[in-house]
């Protein structure tokens, strides 16, 4: 059996694939965070909690309303996005013009409140969510057995990320968003309703977190703490990719998932900290992040 | 009914940046088809006047009527939709957009805007630069792009803040030629300008600003025949 550094290639490939699955979640979440930071100048600490909310709404859709996974894939991002829009309208928009610290504290508080609320209502234990029937089964790849659902997660996440990137980089709407990030008052003077655009952007990015929550429900246990476990890593991803860099967030998310997977093979006990080691290295060598623009 | 040619009426206009009170009761009028300049020393409030008219500065008081619309109660993003185009002093070319994206960024607000072909005729330097990053253009080209993107929107009242600032004489000539063409097209323009020669080349009237007020007004002929008076204001 072929080996690399004494590790069978089969094991290596398997871990790379698993890493890509985690990386898919990192990518979708850090993409939303990067856009929110770039456009609204807000560090959205509630992103993990909104992802958790997405997973819970998915679970509730099935257990309470009988809405299946495919319906949830559409409904949940809309519900979570609408929740985000309310939050933006009621609270966040008052914080744009003052210090970052306030929005950071607000979103952090919101995350704690949401987590506490879900824990109070549903308890801390994880809720199982079945893999949708159409996606049960496995692909036999020779070097590993890949559950079809996990392959779907990678495909769905990468598709969504690429689509969002294309919209931002290649369309007129994207040009407005980029311009408003640079100089909102001039874009307003050109006749574009920037406050409305900010509201919709926040709603959309939060909807993306909800979408990630739907994808996660059949893989991870649906539990109130699932977001806070992930959000710290996702922040590291955004910092490594470069604050505000959309493409950077996507590539870094997937890449770090793979690095984490590989670390599990070579030095398992470091796998939980490797992302942060990379972050320290990147901050030392390239403080603006791998894909960030120097100021 | 007698047609009222007045397009913009500014009366006792005050405006502020946070605590600092910049405009102190400025009053002026601009009629259809006129090119009117704002002259004055640095810090007289010319740029603030433009930013207040464009709706960028929101802390303001007084009367501001444009084509019969009360601008004081018009949300910032609606001002452009009335046909008021703003070319800021800093040009405002976006570094995250290429030339083509910069050019088509402002939404079309009125019929009769310039076609892209016409724009390239007027500004041949912009042709073939579509994929260049906006801020990689030279200063003069950025200025042309900033003007061109407003002309495309169909705005027929243009606020042009120091278009020649920091540009080489040959580029200034280019921009003067463009201004002449815009005048022929019947556009109404408020021009902030330090370069008197440039200002007098195509303007009809001149207002002088001092300490946030309009303190004097000249016709172009009056200005040309009495340069000593304007020089006294400008401290030249």
Automatic annotation (TrEMBL), chain A:
Its annotated compartments are:
Cell membrane
Q: How does it sit in the membrane?
A: Multi-pass membrane protein
InterPro entries membership: ABC_transp_permease, BCAA_transport_permease
User: Which keywords does this Swiss-Prot/TrEMBL entry list?
Assistant: Amino-acid transport, Cell membrane, Membrane, Transmembrane, Transmembrane helix, Transport
Q: Membrane-spanning residues where?
A: 12-37, 73-92, 104-122, 142-168, 200-220, 232-259, 265-285
Coarse class of the primary localization is membrane
- Organism for this UniProt entry: Pseudohoeflea coraliihabitans
For this protein, the record's PANTHER family field holds: ABC TRANSPORTER ATP-BINDING PROTEIN (PTHR11795:SF442), BRANCHED-CHAIN AMINO ACID TRANSPORT SYSTEM PERMEASE PROTEIN LIVH (PTHR11795)
Family label: Belongs to the binding-protein-dependent transport system permease family. LivHM subfamily.
Which Pfam families does UniProt cross-reference here? Answer: BPD_transp_2
What's this protein's name?
Branched-chain amino acid ABC transporter permease
From TrEMBL, chain B:
Swiss-Prot/TrEMBL keywords: Amino-acid transport, ATP-binding, Nucleotide-binding, Transport
Q: Which residues form the ABC transporter domain?
A: 8-236
Entry-linked CDD domains = ABC_TM1139_LivF_branched
Q: What's the superkingdom here?
A: Bacteria
| Membrane-spanning segments | none
One annotated GO molecular function is: ATP binding
Fetch the PANTHER family from UniProt: HIGH-AFFINITY BRANCHED-CHAIN AMINO ACID TRANSPORT ATP-BINDING PROTEIN LIVF
The record's family statement is:
Belongs to the ABC transporter superfamily.
Name the UniProt record assigns to this protein:
ABC transporter ATP-binding protein
Biological source species: Pseudohoeflea coraliihabitans
């Amino acid at each position: 059996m072929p080996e690399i550094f004494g590790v069978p290639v089969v094991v290596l490939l398997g871990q790379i694939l698993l890493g890509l699955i985690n990386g898919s979640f990192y990518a979708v979440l850090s993409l939303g965070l990067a856009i929110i930071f770039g456009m609204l100048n807000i560090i959205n600490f509630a992103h993990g909690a909104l992802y958790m909310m997405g997973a819970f709404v998915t679970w509730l859709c099935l257990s309470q309303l009988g809405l299946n996974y495919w319906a949830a894939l559409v409904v949940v991002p809309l519900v979570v996005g609408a929740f985000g829009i309310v939050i933006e309208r009621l609270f966040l928009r008052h914080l744009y013009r003052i210090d970052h610290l306030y929005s950071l504290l607000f979103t952090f508080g919101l995350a704690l409140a949401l987590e506490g609320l879900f824990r109070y209502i549903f308890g801390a234990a994880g809720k199982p969510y079945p893999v949708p029937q159409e996606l049960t089964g496995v692909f036999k790849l020779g070097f590993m057995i890949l559950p079809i659902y996990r392959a779907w997660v990678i495909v769905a996440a990468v598709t969504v990320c690429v689509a969002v990137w294309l919209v931002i980089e290649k369309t007129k709407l994207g040009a407005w968003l980029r311009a408003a990030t640079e100089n909102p008052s001039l874009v307003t003077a050109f006749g574009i309703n920037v406050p409305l655009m900010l509201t919709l952007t926040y709603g959309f990015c939060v909807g993306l977190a909800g979408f990630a929550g739907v994808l996660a429900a059949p893989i991870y246990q649906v539990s109130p703490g699932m977001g806070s476990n992930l959000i710290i890593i996702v922040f590291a991803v955004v910092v490594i990719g470069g604050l505000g860099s959309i493409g950077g967030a996507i590539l870094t998310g997937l890449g770090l998932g793979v690095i984490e997977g590989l670390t599990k093979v070579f030095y398992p006990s470091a796998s939980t900290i490797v992302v942060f080691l990379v972050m320290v290295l990147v901050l030392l060598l390239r403080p603006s992040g791998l894909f960030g623009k120097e100021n | 009914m007698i047609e009222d040619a007045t397009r913009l009426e500014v009366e006792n206009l005050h405006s502020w940046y946070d605590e600092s009170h910049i405009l102190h009761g400025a009053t002026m009028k601009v009629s259809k088809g006129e090119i009117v300049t704002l002259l004055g020393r640095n810090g007289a409030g010319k740029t603030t006047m433009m930013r207040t008219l464009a709706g960028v500065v929101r802390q303001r008081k007084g009367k501001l009527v444009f084509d019969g619309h009360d601008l004081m109660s018009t949300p910032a993003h609606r001002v452009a939709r009335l046909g008021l185009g703003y070319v800021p002093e800093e040009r405002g070319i976006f570094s995250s957009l290429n030339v083509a994206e910069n050019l088509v960024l402002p939404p079309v607000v009125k019929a009769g805007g310039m076609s892209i072909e016409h724009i390239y005729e007027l500004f041949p330097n912009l042709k073939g630069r579509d994929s260049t990053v906006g801020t990689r253009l030279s200063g003069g080209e950025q200025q042309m792009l900033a003007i061109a993107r407003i002309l495309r929107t169909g705005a027929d009242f243009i606020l042009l803040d120091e278009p020649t600032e920091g540009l080489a004489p040959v580029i200034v000539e280019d921009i003067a030629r463009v201004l002449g063409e815009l005048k022929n097209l019947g556009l109404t323009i408020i021009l902030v300008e330090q370069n008197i020669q440039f200002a007098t080349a195509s303007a009809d009237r001149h207002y002088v600003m001092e300490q946030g007020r309009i303190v004097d007004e000249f016709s172009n002929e009056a200005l040309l025949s009495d340069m000593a008076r304007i020089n006294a204001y400008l401290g030249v």
